[in-house]
Amino acid sequence: MGHTSVTSPRRISPRGSPPHLRRTPPKFRKVLVLKEKRSAEPENPVMDELLLSSKLKRVDSATGCVSPRVPAGDALPSAVSVPRPAQKAPKTPYVILPACDAFEKFRKISRVSVDIGGTLIKVVYSSVMDDELPEESLNGHARKYAYEDGKRVLVNFKKFTDLDRLIAFLKEIWTDRKSGDVIHCTGGGSYKYSEIIMKELGVRLQRTDEMRSLIFGVNFLLSTNVDESFTYHHDAIGINKFQYRPIAADLIYPFLLVNIGTGISILKVDSPTSYERVGGSSMGGGTFMGLGSLLTPAQNFDELLEMANRGDHRNVDKLVCDIYGGAYDELGLKADLIAGSMAKCNRFGEAPMKQTHKPEDIAKSLLLMVSNNIGQMAYLYGTRYNLKRIYFGGYFIRQDPITMRTLSFAINYWSKGEIEALYLKHEGYLGAMGSFLDEDGKLDD
Ligand SMILES: Nc1ncnc2c1ncn2[C@@H]1O[C@H](COP(=O)(O)OP(=O)(O)OP(=O)(O)O)[C@@H](O)[C@H]1O
Ligand SMILES: CC(C)(CO)[C@@H](O)C(=O)NCCC(=O)O
Question: Where is the composition biased (Low complexity) (predicted)?
């Protein structure tokens, strides 16, 4: 942001400053501290926390969002995110599938789906929960989730960073697999690693195209999981920052899906079966991690993200005021707008290593640079196709406040409030979820 001239934007954030310039309010710091402590855990604590949270506030909007959602005639009934796992329920995130014909088969046969991407492997698999979770805990959902025998079918979500661990995990949980069974698979690794997967697990592989998987996944989650999508409001307090945006099944389409993985895919989605990958960019999550590991001592994504949350980008970015001495009013560019990302890091003409910058400031600048760029690109594609809602998916987002704030700000700023930025609870699992559901994938054996 900062290189396109837009005069008098109508709806920016309340005080009109770019999101990265206001200091984190004290209340919010508590959340970050909580996150810092948890980031040492092996699982994905930030996402799991949200997935399992029951406290997000749901709001209705004038743009056609309803609460609770009314399912369309032929839509699958609602799945429900469970706030707190009951006894014997898994510790990892899951949703319970409604007890209906479409899912009945998963009571008897396990289904496993993997999305093997350029950085992460995401797994979605079914399991049956034996214990009696009280129906009251599924309040507000007028569906049955238990079969006559009291059992419920769960869909579980888990991510891996390496293939050997994935295979070991699948051998452990998928004990009833037989040679005729199939593993559902998507992502680049469904080609690259197909032989090793089939050999190690002794099953056939059914491949679903990556884009088709994303669309199937987002369609299923939006149309059946009432509390799937939400907006982010940085200036609100505490849990009010996150607001559910359930949407009626007949109003879901069209929308833009911006999937931020290692790289970025941008899809214009007109219906579950009519979509087009209209754009892409190599400046995505892989760029943040790659440059972050070159420029900071962070050892993994969580550390880098946590560093970014502590940093002050103004020490490394050149702002408009660094160049103009104040705002550039003629163009409506505020004094504190980033004019050049990392432009203060230039050491040409100076003694080697004279100027040093804090890694957290660099991490913050990097996160803003990548997120601002994605936000502006998303806005441009949204405008080009006249779309009013942009859903952001992919594991890069991690429901991180800086990332979501920057994306939302960019969309709101450039579209003058006309386009809405939306996030998804199962952001990183769209592809795995879609391939889990696909009955028509191509068989490899
Ligand atoms: N724990 C983590 N480890 C590694 N990367 C993470 C982690 N958490 C978030 N990320 C971010 O998620 C990105 C990967 O996202 P995702 O899993 O959606 O994409 P992918 O499927 O691996 O890539 P692609 O779709 O481009 O093939 C990483 O590049 C990184 O920015
Ligand atoms: C190559 C894929 C589709 C693999 O998931 C993804 O990383 C991506 O969309 N990269 C961006 C490629 C582009 O510039 O269009």
Answer: 8-19
